[in-house]
Amino acid sequence: MLQKDKILISNNLNIIDNNLTFGGACVSNLAEKYGTPLYVMDENSIRNRCKEYVLALKEVLGENAMVLYASKACSFKKMYEIISEEGMGADVVSIGEIYTCLKAGFPLKNAFFHSNNKTDYDIEFAIDNGIGYFVADNEEELYAIEKIASKKGVKQNVLLRLTPGIDPHTFDAVSTGQVDSKFGSPIETGKAEEVTKIALSLNNVNLCGFHCHVGSQVFDTSVYNETIDIMLNYVKMLKIKYNFDTKVLDLGGGFGVRYDYTDPELKIYENVKKLATYVKNSCKKLEIALPFICLEPGRSIVADSGITVYTVGTIKKIDGYKNYVSVDGGMTDNPRFALYNAKYTVVPTNLSKNLDMTCSVVGRCCESGDIIQENVNLPSDIKRGDLIAVLTTGAYNYSMASNYNRICRPPVIMLKNGEPYVAVKRETLDDIIKNDI
Ligand code: LLP
């Protein structure tokens, strides 16, 4: 396989005159203009991903469906503006994300409030600001929503999170649909039915339907068919036993993305169409009304719409052992290797040289686990001041970034038709101390 094919893992990447380009812009020029470390995101690519989801659902289900962007994947004001313009709703998991929606002018009626532990304050804040739906995790949350909704004299739309008992065979920390998950109520044990009955008995809770999410970085789409079978059979059981009509069914997110050339490419448009057709046909077969269908993609909307650019600092060659290339960021802007052993494609932005040295690319935090990637191939004469890019960092990088070691978080530079603009400013040292008394 050509070196080029190992690098060009998404179609917004290119190599022109030996320089890496992303979203139509020369990556080293961006680094020169905005400094490093730098998150770069391609607005065109984000919008294209959104359009694939929206169009595919619409073609099969018409207006009876909605794509909710799982904003935990990457949340800042501009993201909510983009998804709203693309006709999508949002999955939010905290009042921080809700507040960001509000400040972005995102219509909160299209937001679904997840999380397995909403405080009374969270619930009150969300109701006061007109949240569309709560996705209640358990009965305790149902009672809390009931209490606060009744105090405010509203009947609150609620979905119940259920666990269909599916193991998507991905990394444990991102699997969520099994019976023993911390999320939701399992169908298999009878708990789901028990919680559904509670929801139906509450005056200020308007039970609209159900939610499930089996996991993340899923490539085997048969997992979704199994999930749909289980959820629709549950819907049918409720119709027969309680004459309950499920109006909304939210099937979660999870489509996998390419972190390196060994990952398959999961085609969104084709697979969403298949999934939607499967739902439609299954409802017919089961003789139940087709609910309003929601999908909640996060990673597959933003992951390959983002890269991170770093400047190389210290290079350490421990003869007979290992080579280290340190960069001016690390686990503070990308904790995913430290947390999940996540793989990434790491490349120099100048691709004129042979990649003839194997090394670990590490960050600058005071922590041995501060690694971006192991077994990276870079030129053996790489030196302080050279630039490298880590690809596919658009999901769960900025949103999971921290100020560990009081390191400032990088800015997010967006590209629109190749033209850069600042979507999130670089943190300053004054930002770091702004809450210190
Ligand atoms: N819906 C729910 C209820 C979820 O919990 C998630 C992700 C999604 C949708 C979106 O899943 P996606 O399409 O992004 O796979 N921090 C981890 C990922 C955690 C995923 C949490 N839930 C990572 O960096 O891989």
Total E-strand runs: 21
Please, how many domains? Answer: 2
Low-confidence stretches: none
> Under the CATH scheme, which architecture of the largest domain would be assigned?
Alpha-Beta Barrel
What binds here, in terms of ligands, is: ligand LLP
Give a written overview of the molecule.
This protein has 437 residues and is an alpha/beta fold. The protein folds into two domains: 4-42 and 304-433, Lyase, Ornithine Decarboxylase, Chain A, domain 1 (Beta Barrel), CATH 2.40.37.10; 114-297, TIM Barrel (Alpha-Beta Barrel), CATH 3.20.20. The chain is built from 13 helices and 21 strands. The protein is globular and about 70 Å long. It starts with a helix and ends with a helix. The model has no long low-confidence stretch (mean pLDDT 96). Ligand LLP binds at residues 70, 72-73, 91, 114, 174, 176, 213, 216, 252-255, 296-300, 336, 340, 396.
What's a concise summary of this model?
The chain has 437 residues and is α/β, with parallel strands linked by helices. It contains 13 helices and 21 strands. The strands form three sheets. Strands 4, 14, 15, 16, 17, 18, 19, 20 and 21 form a nine-stranded mixed β-sheet that branches. An eight-stranded parallel β-barrel has the order 5-6-7-8-9-11-12-13, surrounded by five helices.
